[in-house]
Each structure stands twice: as C-alpha cells, then as structure tokens.
Amino acid sequence: MPLANSTVTHIQELAARYPSKQSAIIPALWAVQHEQGYVTDAAMGEIAQHLGLPPSLIEATASFYSMFLTRPEGRHDMVICVNAPCMLRGADEMAGYLKRQLGVRDGQTTADGAITWHSTIECLGACGGAPMMQVDHRFEENLTPERIDAIIERLRKEPAAHGAPQHPLPEPAPAKKPARPRARKTEN
Amino acid sequence: MGVKPLLTKDFATENLEQLAVYERTGGYTGFKKALETQPDALVELVKASGLRGRGGAGFPTGNKWSFLPKGMYPRYLVCNADESEPGCFKDRYLIEESPHQVLEGILIASYAIGCNLAFIYIRGEYLPQTEALERAIEEARQAGYLGKNVLGKGYDIDVILHRGAGAYICGEETAMLTSLEGYRGEPRLKPPFPAVKGLYGKPTVVNNVETVCNLPHIVLNGADWFKAMGTPTGAGTRLWCMSGHVNRPGNYEMENGTPIRELIEEHGGGVWKNRKLKAFQPGGASMMVLLPQHLDVGLDFDAIAKAGSLAGAGAMVVMDETTCMVDAARRYVKFFEHESCGKCTPCREGTFWMANLFDRFEGGDAKPGDIDLLLDIGYNIDGRSFCPLGDASTWFPRSVIKFFRDEFQEHISEKGCPFKKSVQEAVA
C-alpha cells in the first residue's frame, strides 16, 4: 500500500526542518503509522526513498523503538502498567480481569477485531492514578473492574483512533422491535 | 518549609494552557525581561540562584551552561521531556497544566546560551501532552515569541517538538541525542560531554522540563529571592510525585528541605487503610529504599543522599506493611531488563540474570546461595556498565537485600512468596 500524498509531503517537510534528514526518521515512522496503522517493510522503503537514506537505516532505527507496530492490529489497543507503583495498588488483579474479559492472550486481538491486548507494560507516568491502562495512547486511571467493563463496552462500538482501520466496525445489530411498555406496579 | 507552589502557583487558573490566559498570570514577562538582559548576565544569574537540574543528577544548571566552549556555533538546547522513570509523573503534569511555562523556560535558556534551534524530546507515550505542546508552540509562534527577530530584538529561535517512540534509555542525555539524530537510542561515551560535542557534534545543553520551568521565575524575581527558598545547597522547590500506598497520591510542590514525614503523612494523607509504613523510595525506580526511621530526612538532594538514597527525579513510592519487598524489587529489575538497550554486556546480561533470580524467589525455586548470587551480579553491573542506567538497575534490589534480607530467606524456606495471600486480600 503506497503512502498517501499528504504523508509523503509531510515526510519531505520534516526532512527540510531538521539540521540532518536522518533526524526525520522517527517522525516519519510516526506519520506512516498514523496513516496506515502499522509500519510495513514497503513503507520503510518509501521513507528511505523520500529521505535519500538506505532502507536498512530506517529499519535499524524502527526496530529499536517499542511503539512502532509491524503488523495490523485491532481498531483499539490496550496495555496495563504493572510496574511497582501500579502493582502496589492492584494492577496485577486489573490486568488479570481485563484479560479474562477480553478472552485473549498477549498480542492477540478480540474476534470482532475491536481490541488488541498487547501485554502488561512498564511505567507510563501515571503512578498517581494507579492502577492505570493506556487505550489508544490515552490514559485511563484509577481502574476498577466496573470501569474496565465500561471501557471495553465503549471501544467495541468506536471506530479506530488511527487513520486506517484494519478491522471493520461490527454490523449494526438488527433493529429490535420496540418493547411493549409494561404496566408497572405502583407502590403506595 | 512545606508546600510551596512556585511552578504550580497558577495551576488552578482555568484554561492556563491558552496563551492569553498564561499571559494574564504574568506569562512571558520573564522572557521579555531576559531579552533585555545580556546572555552572559543570565548565565551568571542562574549560577547565582543555585538552581540544580531537576532531571535526577542535580547538577547546577548555570554551571552546565557555562561549559559551552566560547565562540562555537551553532549550539543546541534539548529539553528532556522523556520522563520514563517509574514513579515519576511531574513533567507530564507541568506540560499538561502549563505548556507555555515550559516553552518560556526553553526560550530563556536558549537565549542565555546563544542557541537558535531548540528541541523538546518528549516520550512517545505522552500523546495528549505532545498535542498540548504543539498547540502552545503554534500559539507562541503566532504571537511572535518564537521565529525570526523575536519581539523585534533581533534574536531568532525555533523550537522543534520531537516525539520519542518508547525507550526508557532515551532519557539518558547522550542516548537522547543519538535518538534525536535518528539512530537507535544507545548512549555515547562521556567525555566528550554534550556541552562540547552534543547533538550533530555541536555544543549542546540538555535540561529537564522542571528545570526550565524555574527559569521565568528566577529571571523575574532574582537569584536572592530563589536562594531564600529551600536549603543552602538545594535552592527552590521540587515537585514530588507521590504514589503507592498513600491516601492521596499525586503531585506536590514542596520547598526543598521539608521533612519527608510532612509530605507522606500530611499531604499524602498517610498510609492507606490505616496500615503501617514499611518502606518508601524517593527518586524513582533506580533509587535505594528508605525506612520509617528516615521519615525526618529533608526533601533535598544532599539530605536524601546522606540518608543512603538519592532524590533522583522526585518520585515518592510508599509501601505499606503488606508489601512483599522481593516482589517490588522484582518489578523494578524486570523493568530494567526490558529497557536495557543492549549496548553493554554488564547491563544486558546482568539485568536478565537478576530478573531470572527474582522469578525464582517469587516462584519458590530459590536456593540458599541465591541471595549472595544476586548481590554478586549487582556488584558486577554497578560501575561496570556503559551508562548510569545499568548501574542504577542494581541500587534498589541491593538496598532491599540490605534491609529486608530476612524476607528473601523466607521466600527460600517457604518455597514461595509469604505475602502473596495478604497482598491479594489488600487489593480485593
């Protein structure tokens, strides 16, 4: 999938902005991931071409950083911090609960394509709101099982946060017959 | 002593992230005043104020600036917003609440050191914070605070916001510069220090977010005003990020030298669930554990160092009596194992083996010699790693073995974690 024209223009602007065009590699990778949802070898080849650098250099840099994804994922992604400050406030239990609710293992996506559970993760800088998780790069703090349920519920209906959804939204459920109003017993 | 809002004094103001509101609270008057001053005089002012770097090492900021070799240009300023130390969330708070204060500090520092292109290296996970800074930079550009011929004073400055992509090591200044140049974020040998050969081989200053946030206030109010706060060797205030087993976790700006007891008991509301304090850890994941007997130590670089730990990046992780210290240390060791960049053997292999040993303790497979084996590995990492992050991976576990050796023994004799049950009860 070739990069969109707007992404290419953005990469060229980046290259002109920095004193060295190599500095534009990480911002260019971000631009690609934002457009396509993940970074393919072909996309790295394109970045190399636009920056005038060997493709090996792009991959050497990309592979060092944990936030660049190399395969398609669900519309949303989730991670939970279990580093010590979060562990002290029950992050292990929240991670266990979340995994059970999603019914997936590390790195897997739910069957409806809505949510990818990456793994537990190291500190994200929200220790004051522990236990916490990150959903599509936004923080959800002070987790409880009820909050986790509400977040999952919401995400199953929401479109992807990044540019290109890899999994379509679920078909809207067939309209239910309007329920007949039930006579309610009134207590006096 | 006590809570002293200096950087955070206007944080209750609504919409402070907007330029017009920030200006109403006195924003950018520090930068305007700085532009009326000679750059050298600003360096002397910051030296005289006694401001020490808030990123962790506590190096005097003015001295760092004065190490730049005379007459060598271009020079660069890199603001370190790659806050990744477990337990720390102050830079995130400062950026979220008042991105213009960060920017104003960067502009003052840039002008003082004679730099025309500054960078903010922000951690990849901080997306809303990146967006907040992006908006602030754009607003400031529109208002003429950055760009060519700033406020008609003939000074050019541009700021590039550079987003990292998930690597703890990039908070180390040389690794940050390597990453900013577009390479894998591996640290470089010092010397040459960044002041001499930094970004693109040019003289470079790396300053933390909280450090630069102090600058507008120092410029406006003077060195003596700043020095009057805090301790003789630790002027000013610091943001303390309190987390763990306290009733009110969060950020607290405290005057340096305030007793730790006041922070935890008064402002944090004490240990949660009416439990007893077992231990606490200032500074962040790297730093050594302290005990209730250290509660009267002051919140200050030198006082905490004297007590046997380090103030580091201003975290305060509180642990109650139900905490398994072995498990706490295991989390930190696993963090370092995960984040080791792999450049040097002591850190890459050492953190891997430490993590394996800690898993043995928690899993009930530890043997009697394993405590000393852990200490031996720690000894062989500390001082033998390429950068300080390897060394720091050993400080917390070794301090835990020093103070809580009996808990390690119990893990061996009971073939597993004696706390597991009570910890689960604690969070149920």
Element pattern of chain A in H and E: HHHHEHHEEEEH
Largest interface: A-B, 44 and 60 residues
Q: Give the N-terminus to C-terminus distance of chain B in angstroms.
A: 38 Å
What general form of chain A does the structure show? Answer: elongated
Report mean pLDDT of chain B, rounded to a whole number.
95
Question: According to CATH, what is the topology of the largest domain in chain A?
Answer: Glutaredoxin
Task: Characterize the structure shown.
The complex is a heterodimer of chains A (188) and B (428). With 188 residues, chain A is an alpha+beta fold. Chain A folds into 2 domains: 5-62, Orthogonal Bundle (Arc Repressor Mutant, subunit A); 76-157, Glutaredoxin. Chain A has 7 helices and 5 strands. Chain A has helices at residues 5-17, 25-36, 41-51, 55-62, 84-87, 91-102, 145-157, and strands at 76-81, 108-109, 115-121, 133-135, 138-140. Chain A has a 5-stranded mixed β-sheet with strand order 2-3-1-4-5. Chain B has 428 residues and is an alpha/beta fold. Chain B has 3 domains: 19-228, 3-Layer(aba) Sandwich (Rossmann fold); 231-320, Ubiquitin-like (UB roll), CATH 3.10.20.600; 325-427, NADH-ubiquinone oxidoreductase 51kDa subunit, iron-sulphur binding domain (de novo design (two linked rop proteins), Up-down Bundle), CATH 1.20.1440. Chain B is built from 19 helices and 10 strands. Chain B has helices spanning 19-24, 29-35, 39-49, 61-66, 90-97, 99-113, 127-142, 173-180, 209-221, 223-227, 260-267, 301-306, 325-339, 345-363, 370-381, 388-392, 395-403, 405-413, 420-427; strands at 76-81, 117-122, 158-163, 204-208, 230-231, 234-235, 237-244, 250-255, 277-282, 315-320. In chain B, the strands form 3 sheets. Chain B has a 4-stranded parallel β-sheet, sandwiched between helices. In chain B, strands 8-7-10-9 form a 4-stranded mixed β-sheet, covered by helices on one side. Chain B has a two-stranded antiparallel sheet with strand order 5-6. In chain B, helix 2 crosses helix 9. The model of chain B is unreliable at 422-428 (pLDDT under 50). The chains are: A alpha+beta (188), B alpha/beta (428).
